[in-house]
Write a structure and sequence with these properties.
By secondary structure, the protein is α/β, with parallel strands linked by helices. It has 13 helices and 16 strands. 32% of the residues lie in helices and 18% in strands.
Length: 450
């Protein structure tokens, strides 16, 4: 197996569609018609094609933000790729024939333009048979767009499905089967309906005034969160304080913080970039604003960001879509979540991080897909097989036949809180404080107020 890790040279850019507003899963699909949130479809017809891969070799492309503001998502990439390469070192059997596996990686630099460029390079010069991509719409959406245009199978992850699906021009139909305009591109991750189902039950464990301040930027994630939360939370008895979108990279949140203070918002919910949340949270502290709950997706998924906040990081709430205590195993070798995390910490000296799970899982799914086709170089067959796939991986179950829309397989979400670690090597650890979506996932600590 190749150990090629060099990013491809830039190619001419073909950026993807801009993000649109978001919806939740099927329970919230009806909002689309009422609010006029459906976006135009951009259907690409099927094409049976040879990828140009040499006989006997399956080529996998992998695009992730190794640098830039989303880099915290991929700090574990070297370890993840080493584990995947070891698992695939003996190759894969497809259609009764044994194939070597070669993996080509590229750094999107957290830029949609760069993501499109390197994806195009992997498609046209490396002739990949499948593209895997991860970590925020800035990377996953343009990579997916390039693959859809070029008729190359693609599987993305770590983007709420609404930000990926609607942000790329997908439309919501009356049924899941009538919803998708995509042929070659797929996503496996949580949706914003899972975010709501996973987080709101935890909020209700504390006494608050039910006023929620939205910290939503003017990017694809922000548009998706704003669309879902402003519509769903009032029905759960919450009043949303929406101070308006801010630009990624903002350095002054005074206006937003003052609005939270004047309105009495005791909960903050948002999806900022890691550097932006650090700026906001430190400024909020200096201005004397301290809500009872700060539930922050994206920015504080990672221990490095929370530790960087010092004492201000304690008891922040976020998504816990994967932790070492979850009851799942690798389809490659039966490795448990705990074994995976322990091996990472022993090998790197760094604390485990959530994205190491889904970034590994998409390779598991890709391997399953290739084992299920007659010709791994037939783009149409491989893409269609993704849509038929379901199984168990290091992140739990996945099922592309039963998603909220076609081309999407969803995962449960859980409320996680950064509390002082029981392991003396680390400052904080992420503990599951509510398991409303799946009782088989253990609650590992009680919820605490900020």
């Amino acid at each position: 197996m190749s150990h090629t890790d060099d990013s491809p040279r830039p190619a001419p850019s073909q950026t993807g569609a801009q993000a649109g507003p978001a919806l939740t899963r099927r329970a919230f699909v009806g909002l689309a018609g009422a609010a006029g949130l459906g976006l135009a479809a951009g259907c690409s017809g099927g094409l049976k094609s040879s990828s140009g891969s040499s006989a006997g070799t399956i080529k996998i492309g992998y695009v992730s933000p190794r640098t830039g503001p989303d880099a915290a998502f991929t700090s574990s990439d070297p370890f993840v790729l080493s584990k995947v390469r070891a698992a695939l070192a003996r190759g894969l059997t497809a259609g009764g024939k044994k194939y070597k596996v070669e993996i080509f990686t590229a750094d999107s630099q957290s830029s949609d333009t760069r993501a499109a460029q390197v994806a195009q390079q992997l498609i046209t010069q490396n002739n990949v048979d499948i593209m895997l991509t991860t970590s925020a719409p800035e990377t996953v959406n343009p990579v997916s767009d390039q693959c859809e245009s070029a008729h190359v199978p693609c599987l993305g992850t770590i983007v709420p499905w609404e930000a990926w699906f609607l942000g790329r021009g997908g439309t919501i139909g009356k049924t899941a089967a009538a919803s998708s305009s995509f042929t070659y591109t797929y996503l496996y991750f949580i949706g914003l309906e899972d975010e709501l189902a996973g987080q709101v039950p935890a909020w209700k464990e504390l006494t608050t005034n039910h006023k929620v301040g939205g910290l939503w930027p003017s990017d694809a994630d922000g548009s998706a969160f704003r669309g879902a939360f402003t519509k769903a939370l009032p029905g759960d008895g919450y009043k949303v304080i929406n101070p308006g979108a801010y630009s990624d990279g903002a350095t002054d949140f005074t206006t937003i913080i003052n609005k939270y203070k004047s309105s009495g918002a005791e909960i903050v919910q948002g999806c900022p970039l890691p550097p932006d949340f650090a700026t906001f949270w430190k400024q909020a502290s200096s201005m004397g604003y301290k809500p009872k709950i700060a539930c922050i997706a994206k920015a504080i998924l990672f221990p490095s960001v929370v530790v960087g906040l010092g004492a201000l990081g304690e008891n922040l709430l976020t998504d816990a879509w994967w932790t070492p205590g979850m009851p799942w195993k690798s389809s490659f070798d039966g490795m448990t979540c705990r074994q995976y995390a322990n091996e990472y910490q022993a090998a790197t000296g760094q604390q485990w991080t959530q994205p190491m799970s889904f970034n590994y899982a998409v390779f598991e799914i890709a391997a399953h897909v290739f084992r299920s086709v007659s010709d791994p170089h037939d783009h149409e067959e491989v893409a269609a097989q993704i849509g038929k796939s379901r199984g168990e991986v290091i992140t739990g179950s996945y099922d592309f036949t039963g998603g909220p829309v076609k081309n999407v397989a969803v995962h449960d979400d859980f409320a996680g809180q950064w509390q002082k670690s029981k392991d003396p090597k680390f400052m904080y650890d992420l503990y599951v404080v509510n398991n409303a979506m799946d009782s088989s996932v253990p609650v590992t600590a009680p919820l605490e107020s900020l």
